[in-house]
Write a structure and sequence with these properties.
Blueprint (H helix, E strand, L loop, with lengths): L15 H13 L7 H11 L7 E4 L5 H9 L6 E5 L2 H10 L6 E5 L11 E6 L7 H5 L3 E13 L7 E2 L2 E2 L1 H8 L3 E9 L2 E8 L1
Parallel strand pairs: 1-2, 1-4, 2-3, 4-5
Antiparallel strand pairs: 5-9, 6-7, 8-9
Helix pairs in contact: 1-3, 2-3
Bound molecules: S-adenosylmethionine.
Protein name: Transferase
Organism: Actinocatenispora thailandica
Length: 195
Amino acid sequence: MPQRTGRAPVNRPLPPLVMRAKRDAAAAGFGRSCRDEVGRLLATLAGTAGAGPVGELGSGYGVGTAWLRTGLAPGARLVTVDRDPAAAAATGALFAGDPAVTVLVDDWRAAAGHGPYRLLFCDGGGKQGGPDAVTGLVAPGGVVVLDDFTASSGWPPTFGGEVDRLRVSWLTDERFLATEVGTGPGVVAIVATRR
Ligand SMILES: C[S@@+](CC[C@H](N)C(=O)[O-])C[C@H]1O[C@@H](n2cnc3c(N)ncnc32)[C@H](O)[C@@H]1O
């Protein structure tokens, strides 16, 4: 019987665009890009978002954006925002000449003017504000993804010995149906569908 490692295959080839973004991020010393497991989840969900739009709060160096772009349906729009000019410039360079992708250099709130989103990767500004901060950016039936939570088997989930209030707020909000998905050893993402 094959061993159960709790991991997705690590040697599965990456899309060329993602490889390029990861190289750019590494060259800039940026270590906060999403994991490959999260990226594959984003690409898969982007494929269900129809004409979109698809949004990302916190572009970083474009790794998450590249995964979202990989799954984007033909004709759909992808909007990503980062307040850090260097990060936004790197992401902008990656998608130069791609009419499907808009990169904003701004606070995350600027993304509201391009929504409401069918899929929203909430990965920078806005994340700490919980559902109250970003619900207005999400179309009915739209999906929000938040990554990088430490796995916790009990209820309520804890982090550092304290109740993880941010995670509880997403998992119990009446406006969403939400679950946690394992995205690597000891880490989970939240996937929340707006009712
Ligand atoms: C975790 S990184 C994003 C990684 C990226 N989504 C990826 O998967 O490769 C978070 C980003 O959010 C940006 N950020 C933080 N606060 C922000 C705000 N208020 N508005 C816009 N961007 C913000 C940071 O500059 C940083 O680049």
